[in-house]
Specification:
The protein has 123 residues and is an alpha+beta fold. It folds into 2 domains: 71 residues, Roll (2,3-Dihydroxybiphenyl 1,2-Dioxygenase, domain 1), CATH 3.10.180; 50 residues, Signal recognition particle alu RNA binding heterodimer, srp9/1, CATH 3.30.720. It is built from 3 helices and 9 strands, in the order E-H-E-E-E-H-E-H-E-E-E-E. The longest helix has 10 residues. The radius of gyration is 15 Å and the shape is globular. This is VOC domain-containing protein.
């Protein structure tokens, strides 16, 4: 049976910089390891979060299996206070889309250092 733990793989040109990017958005680094000559980082919204992002070195993965790194995942993060989160992200170095209302929800997007696109939705 499946449990509530979800890990999403992201590929980055620099695992360290990608981890720092997510930490700058308020995530915590769960682990940072060297595996088989490559770096792997795991970040989450909190230490107790059941959803983690596992960041692998793109070049290392492409060298070992060039079909694994595409397409990039499309993630939608939920927020209980989308306005405060949007204001916070405006203060960090992140490519940020407009905050728009769709029905009763508010939505915006952002892009990480490696061009991965993410959506935030909430009230």
């Amino acid at each position: 049976m499946f449990n509530e733990q979800v890990k999403v793989i992201l590929y980055a040109d620099s695992v360290k910089k990608a981890s720092e990017f997510w930490q700058g958005l308020g995530f915590v680094e769960i682990s940072f390891e060297e595996l088989d000559g490559s770096q792997v980082a795991e970040v989450a919204m909190s230490q107790n979060s059941t959803t983690h992002l596992v960041i692998y070195d793109r070049a290392f993965v492409e060298k070992n299996d060039d079909e694994v790194t595409e397409p990039a995942p499309a993630l939608i993060f939920g927020s209980d206070d989308v306005f405060s989160l949007y204001k916070k992200l405006q203060t960090v170095d992140v490519q940020l889309g407009d905050l728009v209302q769709i029905d009763k929800e508010y939505v915006f997007n952002f892009v990480d250092l490696d061009g991965n696109y993410f959506v935030v939705s909430g009230k």
